[in-house]
Amino acid sequence: MESVGIGLLGLGTVGGAVARRLIDEWELLGERAGATPALRCVAVRDTSRSRGFDLKNVRVVGDPQAVVADPAVAIVVEAIGGTDPATALIEAALRAGKTVVTANKAVIAASGPRLSALAAEHDAGLYFEASVGAGLPIIGLLRGSLLGDRIAALDCVINGTTNVILTQMRSAGVSYESALGDARRRGFAEADPSLDVDGWDAVHKLVILAWLAFGVHVAPDGVDRRGIRDVTGADVGALAQLGYRVRLLAHAERGSGDSVHLRVRPTAVGPGHLLHDVDDADNAVIISSDLEGTMMLRGLGAGGSSTASAVVSDVVTAVRERGTPVVNPAALTVPTMLGDADVEVAGYVRLQLSAEPEARALVLQALEDRGVAVDAAVDLTGSELIVLTGVAPRAVHDRALETLDTLTSVDQILGALDRVEA
Ligand code: HSE
């Protein structure tokens, strides 16, 4: 059988899992691809380090440019992560007419449309299924099965690390640090885990999904982003008592015309909501579209084996599609971002009432007076009050919270989150 040379950049958690699969299953993958994807060359930072598995006759080099330049390599798999030098390496491969398979969400979020155009210009393919949800085939859905639909909204849990942390915070006695340590040990966290906990990783993935779903390219800086550092165990616990689970929700919606809204925020998810039970490192993407209605993909969305599932699938697809004209998605329009006056949210607020008489009633009245309905109010011990606020524009919500902060009936606002219901 004919073979197609594969070059791999990086042999870490993802690269290692990809290499093993290509070496161990070359025969099966070859049958599926119609030609054998043959791993020829691997670039690693330290060529002297032992890998714990047999790389057979694969050439190991220290310089990733040598993989890109290797004439035996037709497909370059980028698994080093980060934007630098990954972006330049991907560009060099595409310019040389080599197809690129990458799991790199930071690169695709920042430069996906440009790299896609570069690939088309050089008759090369650009595949990035693993960049969002690891092995969950969400990119394939958006680039294939749903091409006949108009997509209205995406609601996602697309960062495994924060979901592991928020899940473990529900169990008394598990600290943020120990939960993050667990996510790192299991190979889910980024090399710099602030990308996870500050919401950037989810932002990158949401930008990619919005590009494919809506045909717009939003810069990562343009996404309304909050991480999970300020989420307290007290809020996670109080919400759990009420049946809610806190998740780092990534939401994208299309407004009228070319307007869109993208946000990544810790959010209280109500019982019965499709994302309520998506615990631990599971990811989920809910797609709302005009023809299909509501559909959800759910499964493990981080880690070496799940990411290798998508990368190897892309390699097989790239080999199978070699020689056929490449159709890459284009970014069609410059989006208008919806503002806080247009985006509607419901909320959760936990506050400490003062000793003032009628403090509770005054707080609830103040919210109503400022246009925020009270869906429920729950008293906790020690004069703490939880208010579940009704759907209103974010700007109205924010102003109402600012008002609460000035009331003598309120000693302190202890926590505030978005909230979604089934
Ligand atoms: N750090 C990422 C996560 C890895 O936790 O989801 C998968 O992209």
Question: Which tags fit this structure?
Answer:
Rossmann fold; Alpha-Beta Plaits; eleven-stranded mixed beta sheet; six-stranded parallel beta sheet; single chain; alpha/beta; binds L-homoserine; 422 residues; Dihydrodipicolinate Reductase, domain 2
Summarize the structure.
The protein is 36% helix and 27% strand. It contains 14 helices and 17 strands. The chain has helices spanning 13-24, 26-33, 64-69, 86-95, 105-121, 138-145, 160-169, 176-185, 194-197, 200-214, 233-241, 304-320, 359-369, 394-406, and strands at 3-9, 36-43, 59-61, 75-78, 99-102, 126-127, 151-157, 224-225, 245-254, 259-269, 282-289, 293-300, 336-337, 344-353, 374-379, 384-393, 410-420.
Report the CATH superfamily of the largest domain.
Dihydrodipicolinate Reductase, domain 2
Count up the domains: 3
Beta-strand percentage range: 25-35%
CATH topology of the largest domain: Dihydrodipicolinate Reductase, domain 2
Q: Gyration radius, to the nearest Å? A: 24 Å
Residues in helix, %: 25-40%
What value does the average pLDDT take?
95
Tell me which CATH architecture of the largest domain applies here. 2-Layer Sandwich
Helix-and-strand structural type: alpha/beta
CATH class of the largest domain: Alpha Beta
Q: Please mark out the parts with pLDDT under 50 across 5 or more consecutive residues, or reply none.
A: none
Please work out how many helical segments DSSP would assign. 14
Distance from first to last alpha carbon: 52 Å
